[in-house]
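Now for one protein, fold included:
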Amino acid sequence: MDIYQWNVAQIGSEPTGTAKYEHALSQNHSDIDGIEVHQIRRHAEGFMSTMPISWLLQYRCHNADLVHATFQTVAPAAFVHRPENFVVTIHDLAPLVYPSEVRDISLRLQWQLTPRALKLSDKIIAISNYTKQEIQRLTDISGSKIEVIHQGIDHSHYRPLEQQKARDRLGLSHQDTFVLVVSSSLEHKRMEEAKPILEAVREKHPDVKLLKAGYGEELTGEHVVNTGWIDEDDMPALYSAADVYLHPSEYEGFGLPVLEAMACGTPVVARDVASIPEIVGDCFDLVSPDAHPEEFADAIFSNLDVDLPYRDAVERSRHFSWDKTARETADVYRSLLD
């Protein structure tokens, strides 16, 4: 099988969740007999880096047996270059649910065309059962066309590290108790709740500090530590340095940081919404979808007594791997080509 994967990640881009997915698919498919994978990625900067121009000039079929658009907004390229067999991965449809988040003109164009472009696909891969439900709710695409294949994780990289050594690596205090949040500042991430949750926690545990990582806006406050962007090599140390991982988001297509925290043995406090229950299983008691800061604080209190690393979380995380993701994706390819 000659497979061309149309990637959304730019050449040399930071390893976000989508970039990790695209890299893992390519790497793991290279180990599967009978699959020859070619990655097409956008330029890093300039005119050629924009998505609409990439649709026209970058994403081509090259006589591929099958083309896989590994992110939903790449799909409109099929209007210009129609693959013989076409698979699209949908990570989430948040811009259709939260249109106010889409302020960039290019993104608006992408999300105007993407729902129509999805109808050109032969198969759609949803990264969670929740995402499949959202596709069916927000488009008229039949469920029979959609395959659910969860994202994975590299367990050789994301694994428990000794907490004090992890803190030394990041220059963090040994004495403080850290609640970690890794998030952007998009509306559905609900980051405005992080500080009220911290205040509720500190009423009973004044030694707790909030550790904020990610590419969103910094949080201000005396008891907030902003790490900024953390290199991928240091992410396991970041999760291992924390006592609890807080995930206040109300909408997720998957929730890779939750899985990464679990793989490092860090207890998770999150809402019982979207795809999160699929990841955590019965490993944690999730808070209600409309939880107030005090309910989050109570959940954090209960997890501060957990022995670290939390082995139940590590074991649950082993249900997910990039090898499994790649093998199930290869099965989708074969279903169209055999």
The chain has two domains: 2-152+321-337, 163-317. The first helix runs from residue 17 to 29. The chain has 13 helices and eleven strands.
